[in-house]
Amino acid sequence: MLEIQRPSKIRSVGFATHDEALWICEKCGPIEPHYVRLTDRWLRGPECPCQIEARRVQAETERHLAWIRKDQHTCYNWLGPWISDDLPLVEQTLDSFKRPLKWQEKAYNAARLFALEPNGTIIFYGPYGTGKTHLLAAITNELRLRKFSSRFCVAAKLHQAVAECHKSGEDAYRLMYQAITAPLLVIDDVGASKLSESRLETYETIIDERTKHKRPIAIRRCEMNRPVFHEHEQDSLIPPGYGIDESHDGGFYPYRIADGLPVYVKRNGLDARCESYEQALEYVAEVAD
User: CB within 8 A of 133, min separation 6: which ones?
Assistant: First the structure.
């Protein structure tokens, strides 16, 4: 009888004995191997259900991590190649926010609630160095873990990007479309620079369209002088230096996003649109009386 000559590569596939090919799953028990007559070798048995599930979970985790890395750039670097990114803000988290003061604790709680269910508009304002930008970035980073995408921008950079588009002859539609359709739009340092007619138009277009489609917005403005309310005034208890909207504390207060923009006020269940910050203050006083 002639002996079959098997190529060395084929002879090296699998295991020489049954016991070598046998493996035991902690949940499913022994997985029997298969004997291949052609190679006179043993191959390990098929994957058990828990092995298949573990491989699926690993693949899903890798896809999620890849999406997170991509979304970090989408969130902090979407204004174009001529605008510097804000990628260092990916390190900001809610847990790392220092809140030694009582009103900082309230601001933290407002940000945490907004991150759990982004709805309406949340506004942070107050002096520099109190953690407003930190909280805005932390909200986007927290939402990213749940595959909720955001667009973060500094107001001055947004206007610069729009101006660069017009300067180079390009249409700013791409930028405006992203700002309008993003699941969450975050604008940092609103009102820090002089408000021109074109900037006012940019704000109104973005805010009106997002409000119309009920898409959430998070805003930060450095506001040194805020309206002062007394503790007995219902729906007006605002932590110093910060603002939170009606979806969290039951009432909204007058707030100047930028000179010339309308102000929306909600107080004691009544809603009003005021054309100026001063008019909004008068409206609140009338409702209080």
Answer: 89, 92, 188, 189, 220
Specify the DSSP element, H or E, that contains 236: none
Q: 286 in a domain, yes or no? A: no
Q: Residues with Cβ < 8 Å from 124, sequence gap 6 or more? A: 107, 111, 132, 135, 136, 218, 219, 220, 221, 242, 243
Average confidence score pLDDT of the chain: 76
Helix (H, G, I), strand (E, B) or coil at 41: strand
Q: Are 76 and 140 within one domain?
A: yes
Tens-digit pLDDT profile for residues 64-99: 999 999 999 999 999 988 889 999 999 999 999 988
Instruction: Indicate whether 40 belongs to any domain.
Output: yes
Predicted local distance difference test score (pLDDT) of residue 189: 87
pLDDT of residue 277: 53
Least confident piece of the model among 37-41, 48-52, 121-125, 281-285: 281-285
pLDDT in tens, 120-130: 888 887 667 77
Q: Tell me which residue of 161, 272, 257 sits closest to 210, measured CA to CA.
A: 257
Domain with 101 in it: 71-257
Judge if 121 and 250 occupy the same domain. Answer: yes
Q: Residue 273: how many CA atoms within 13 Å on its side-chain side? A: 4
| Residue pointed to by tokens 């030694």 | 100
Distances (CA, A) of 67 to 84, 128, 147: 22, 33, 8
Between helix 197-212 and helix 155-167 the angle, nearest 10°, is 110
Answer left, alpha or beta for residue 129, where phi above 0 means left and psi between -120 and 50 means alpha.
Answer: left
CA distance linking residue 264 with residue 247, whole number of Å: 14
Q: How many folded domains does the chain comprise?
A: 2
Instruction: Name the pTM for this structure.
Output: 0.67
